[in-house]
């Protein structure tokens, strides 16, 4: 078992997910739940869901959404608040293409955005499952697996993961789930992680 779990802030390379085009809507928003329809991911020009609204309708798994939007004065600047009605989880990045040295996992359905937020990756992992992605920013080939007491192959080299199961698991790189091959522990019901190196197997801690 690896004693130290990977940290939330992971080193990331260029995201390979879909980069979303966005529609612009000029209506002001005092209540995000009223203006951001179910299935939409919404960005607002101003804090507290005010100003021009920019939407991505029914985004696909792995979609990358830039926070840049054309403001009411015609300039392009990052949005100041967001609302996620797309039934997906999100992490945000300091660059506009879902790349950068670190990311932050946000559990809020909607909130004001920090200055560092320049793009969002939208993705899912079913409750009770352990999910792995080939890319290190929750992009590329995805595997959704049950936790297991036996050494289980992922099917590819995974570089990001999310354990939404009730059991902590350890990830491994190699042909066997042995201590020398252990890479990272993923605690039960934890946040998404960018792994320090590629893994291809896992089992319960």
From TrEMBL:
It comes from the Bacteria. Residues 1-22 form the signal peptide. It holds the Pfam family Inhibitor_I36. SUPFAM superfamilies: gamma-Crystallin-like. The keyword Signal applies. The keyword Signal applies. InterPro entries: G_crystallin-like (IPR011024). Gene3D superfamilies: Crystallins (2.60.20.10). Keywords: Signal. This is Peptidase inhibitor family I36 protein. It comes from Streptomyces griseoviridis. The lineage of its organism: Bacteria, Bacillati, Actinomycetota, Actinomycetes, Kitasatosporales.
